[in-house]
Amino acid sequence: PCFSEDKMRSFNRNRRVVKGVLKRCTSFLASPEVIKKIPRFLGAHPSRAGKFPRPIAGSIDEEIANAKCYVRLQVKKTMCICAPVGHVGLTADQLRRNIVLTVNCLVSLCPKGWGNIKRLYIKSTMGPAVDLMK
Q: How many C-beta atoms surround the C-beta of residue 100 within 10 A?
């Protein structure tokens, strides 16, 4: 969905309305001029939900394609990190590429690189876990 400044202003920082909009979408894009005004229109809710809009730098089509490819790694208190890497419609080569990119991104975030990683597993929703690295 596309929201104009007037539409966002009509939300009037209403908590229920803003949270409903945030639940419907996984990521948001906005022009740099509008990003400055979003906290005034929507309050702190997008930041708390981790869905604050990303600025549009190039063409909108490129930004939408990048937003669809964006994967967010969630780190909890335990040292087990889970990330989605694919879906049923992907070919084996696309799935392999996604796994390699996700693992390399994870390794680059670790202070000691590969030294911080003991085990890697890949798991489908209902299937058993497959050991990638022990």
A: 11
Q: How far is CA 100 from CA 20, 89, 134, in A?
A: 34, 18, 16
Per-residue confidence (pLDDT) for residue 51, from 0 to 100? 79
Average pLDDT over residues 44-56: 79
66-97 per-position pLDDT tens digit? 777 766 666 666 677 777 888 888 888 988 88
Helices (H) and strands (E) in the chain, counts: 7, 6
pLDDT, average across residues 12-26: 80
Angular region, 45: left φ>0, alpha ψ -120 to 50, beta rest: alpha
Q: What is the pTM of this model?
A: 0.51
Give burial (CB, 10 Å; 0-12/13-18/19+) of 53.
Answer: middle
Q: What's the rounded Cα separation, in Å, for the pair 83 and 70?
A: 11
Handedness of CA 103, 105, 107, 113 (dihedral sign): positive
Decide the pairing of beta strands 29-30 and 74-75. unpaired
Q: SS3 for 9?
A: helix
